[in-house]
Amino acid sequence: MIKILAVNAGSSTLKWKLFQMPRADVIAKGQIERIGFKDARLSITTMRDDFSEELTIKDHQQAVDKLLGILTEYKIVDKLDEIKGVGHRFVNGANHFAKSIVIDDTVLKEMEDLVEFAPLHNPANIMAIKAFRRELPNALSVAVFDTGFHQTIPEENVVYAIPYEYYQKFHVQKFGAHGISYRYVLQRFLKVTECNKENKRVIILHLGSGASVCAIQNGKSLDTSMGFSPVSGIAMQTRSGDVDPSMLIYLEEKLGVNSKSVLKMLNNKSGILGISGVSSDMREIMEIHQKNERADLALRVFVNRIVKYIGAYATELGELDAIVFTGGIGENIPRVRKLICDKLGIFGVKIDNALNEVKAKETKISAMNSNVEVWTIPTNEELMIAEDVEKLYNEKR
């Protein structure tokens, strides 16, 4: 039995879970929000109780120091050496990393060279990795890549129709995202359905604050909606999804701003928030959409973009065996699942309305006469990270 820490560092957040492996027991979990601000908030849940506090955290190093101090102060661990491995979610490993890897100085340098591919996420990942390596020098440090699962996507789905030399010289291509989540959900789907991954054609919908669609064939990613960056694909809570690039130049001129400002708008002020003008939270949209025209339009756009991707991917797969919902929206808002599935009649998709009322459970929600199985499977990216760390730890022993 070993203790493994799974870490997900954002630009101003540090989320984590401490596992007892291989039983996958969660000893404790928590997050530090608003790193770099005077009103940062730390919250922790243990097997005994919950607690939170407001404090000043200037950077990720200080956040890591605070977290590790609390682990011993509150006797979550007796000593830090009990933690044998730390797994880090790394958003974009470009086409350098296809699978999880032990982080040494050489690997860390290669990861630092990839910062430009995810400027909102990768720098924070690097800072957290360095901080944990400094404070836990005896723990195995492992990088788990969100883009790794999509390394199997064929070239015709990766290459953009722009001058080919940009792909060759600058790696301008589709990278995808949510790969750790897709890997976990696919693993669970194959287990609960007791089916072999060969010849299984599945579309997984990861619908959360970030959202994407992935077509999976023979256990491998065939195509996915997010591209060079996580702003592309379907409409999301605050991200626009696919837009016409010429529109961006038009808006730069009309608004008198630069391209970075427009990109910030696409990431932070668009999607459900941008259309509704009210909220980015789908739960709030569902409460008001029947009385608020813009909220209703935001909901319809969200569903519309997802359905279009499902249609394209089902055609690409040749046949569709299953659709799986995951992520905060996919797992917890039955009405959204129904709105999507009701538009997929051409594929013979039918859901059982009673079964569809489930939230946050592994459940088959399709009707008996549906041509396509429909499931909800809660994701657990942290457990996937912990399992990868455990595997590499055992290999090195």
Topology:
Blueprint: E1 2-9, E2 13-21, E3 25-33, E4 40-46, E5 50-55, H1 60-73, E6 83-90, E7 101-102, H2 105-112, H3 122-135, E8 140-145, H4 155-158, H5 164-170, H6 179-192, E9 201-207, E10 211-217, E11 220-224, H7 245-255, H8 259-268, H9 271-276, H10 282-288, H11 293-317, E12 322-326, H12 327-332, H13 334-341, E13 363-364, E14 373-376, H14 381-396
Parallel strand pairs: 1-6, 6-8, 9-12, 12-14
Antiparallel strand pairs: 1-2, 2-3, 3-4, 4-5, 7-8, 9-10, 10-11, 13-14
Helix pairs in contact: 1-3, 6-14, 7-8, 10-11, 11-13
Structure report:
Pathway: Metabolic intermediate biosynthesis; acetyl-CoA biosynthesis; acetyl-CoA from acetate: step 1/2. Keywords: ATP-binding, Cytoplasm, Kinase, Magnesium, Metal-binding, Nucleotide-binding, Transferase. The record marks 178, 239 as: Transition state stabilizer. ATP binds at residues 15, 206-210, 281-283, 328-332. The active site is at 146 (proton donor/acceptor). This protein has 397 residues and is of the alpha/beta class. It folds into two domains: 2-145, Nucleotidyltransferase, domain 5, CATH 3.30.420; 195-376, Nucleotidyltransferase, domain 5, CATH 3.30.420.40. The chain is 38% helix and 21% strand. The chain contains 14 helices and 14 strands. The protein has helices at 60-73, 105-112, 122-135, 155-158, 164-170, 179-192, 245-255, 259-268, 271-276, 282-288, 293-317, 327-332, 334-341, 381-396; strands at residues 2-9, 13-21, 25-33, 40-46, 50-55, 83-90, 101-102, 140-145, 201-207, 211-217, 220-224, 322-326, 363-364, 373-376. The strands form two sheets. Strands 5-4-3-2-1-6-8-7 form an eight-stranded mixed beta sheet, sandwiched between helices. Strand 4 and strand 5 (50-55) form a beta hairpin. The longest helix is centred in the last third of the chain and has 25 residues, at 293-317.
